[in-house]
TrEMBL record:
This is shikimate dehydrogenase (NADP(+)). Pathway: Metabolic intermediate biosynthesis; chorismate biosynthesis; chorismate from D-erythrose 4-phosphate and phosphoenolpyruvate: step 4/7. Residues 130-177 form the Quinate/shikimate 5-dehydrogenase/glutamyl-tRNA reductase domain. The lineage of its organism: Bacteria, Pseudomonadati, Pseudomonadota, Alphaproteobacteria, Hyphomicrobiales. Its EC number is 1.1.1.25.
Length: 274
């Protein structure tokens, strides 16, 4: 929580988080703590809004001069894109935004940091996907952002495998469209032959979930990474460790993404993360 000593004044920058439902969000606590550490005068509060009312809220926020920006989460990441005045190249390619900054002139500018957070978290752990062969399980919202970030990070090969094959094919086509020559292919449940194996499905969130890929094919030279943050130990990470693989949990994605969000929203001196 924000420190009780923090004074909110007429100069305080206000930041929001747009979500529905919103009771479970933890981003305000984490970003408020960061703002306090940075000695900045800002506060993030929940902006609970339905999909139906999202356009009215976003339009109104353009008029709010004390607004620094806002974080966007489920279910608004896709819908918000068309309501903004501009988005980054990667947000346009992915078709989703999870952070929006309000410029002095009222324009709202969005970016998508989900995938960059994942790749940044890997890099922070000393795992650089550049030039590596990557296997990605999933083709949903999280997988989309991560697939684009892997391609932008310069992987040598990206194999996408998904229960619904058509969604993997659609993602691969959009990747090839956005980044000509993107080394993308469609895979099966077998992740063998890849340096980095990443789970971007929701399998592992619930106890008793099936594995997102054929863990019997993992070999000890592979790195297995997870997007799921809670639980910290998912079945695929446990299976990978049993095979002797190096594993990478979901948490570093969050840590990296908070830094990226804080930079984008001007909550701290740029480059502080470097
Ligand atoms: P998120 O925003 O977390 O990515 P999502 O967009 O709903 O959520 O995507 C969920 C991903 O997990 C998808 O890749 C989904 O596969 P489908 O595209 O075939 O639905 C995958 N997933 C969820 N439940 C699954 C299951 N029981 N078996 C296999 N894949 C599953």
């Amino acid at each position: 929580a924000a420190p009780a000593s923090r004074e909110i004044s007429g100069l305080t920058k206000v930041y929001g988080i747009l979500a529905d439902p919103i009771h479970h969000v933890k981003t305000p606590q984490m970003l408020n703590a960061l703002v306090a550490r940075e000695g900045r005068d800002g506060v993030m509060v929940p902006f609970h809004v339905s999909s139906e009312e999202l356009p009215r809220l976003v339009d109104g926020l353009k008029a709010m001069k004390s607004l620094g920006g806002f974080v966007v989460t489920v279910p608004h990441k896709t819908a918000v894109v068309d309501l903004l005045d501009g988005v980054s190249d990667s947000a346009r390619r992915i078709g989703a935004c999870n952070v929006v900054r309000r410029e002095e002139d009222g324009r709202l500018i969005g970016d998508m940091l989900d995938g960059k957070g994942f790749v940044g978290g890997l890099k922070a752990a000393g795992i650089d996907p550049k030039g590596r062969s990557v296997y990605l399980a999933g083709a949903g919202g999280a997988a989309n952002a991560i697939a684009f970030a892997f391609v932008e990070a310069g992987v040598a090969r990206l194999t996408i495998a998904n229960r619904t094959r058509a969604k993997a094919e659609d993602l691969a086509a959009r990747l090839a469209d956005a980044v000509p020559g993107a080394p993308v292919e469609i895979g099966t449940a077998d992740p063998s032959g890849h340096d980095i194996v990443a789970n971007a499905t929701s399998l592992g969130l619930k106890a008793g979930d099936a594995l997102p890929l054929d863990a019997s094919r993992l070999t000890a030279d592979q790195i297995v990474a997870e997007v799921i943050m809670q639980p910290e130990e998912t079945a695929i990470l446990a299976a990978a460790r049993a095979k002797g693989c190096r594993t990478h949990p979901g948490k570093p994605m969050l840590v990296c993404q908070l830094d990226l969000m804080a930079d984008f929203l001007g909550m701290r001196s740029l480059g502080a993360a470097a």
